Amino acid sequence: xxxxxxxxxxxxxxxxxxxxxxxxxxxxxxxxxxxxxxxxxxxxxxxxxxxxxxxxxxxxxxxxxxxxxxxxxxxxxxxxxxxxxxxxxxxxxxxxxxxxxxxxxxxxxxxxxxxxxxxxx
Length: 121
Hints:
With 121 residues, the protein is an all-beta fold. It has no helices and 11 strands. Helix content is 0%, strand content 50%. The radius of gyration is 13 Å and the shape is globular. The N and C termini lie far apart (40 Å). The relative contact order is 0.32.
């Protein structure tokens, strides 16, 4: 059974940092691209970042230069380093898998349950 479990969310002040993790199981992690998607309160899903199985990274304009996606295939774990956080980054953050990396929600075939990031002063 495919499982994706996010962790690392919490309350942080504007300008602060967090590192989110996504523990993957039930599939050959290194063979799949992974993405981070977020949903702000009352808003729709927003693609944030993606990384190919080999480590090529892609970012939404809203987070470029502030967030860093990475993966450790040996640990079956995906990461998102969130720096210089803004209040508008407040959202539930989800990880998801896909066959290929893209900058859309298309092709995401499994999702985690999310971890909440709250950026507030």
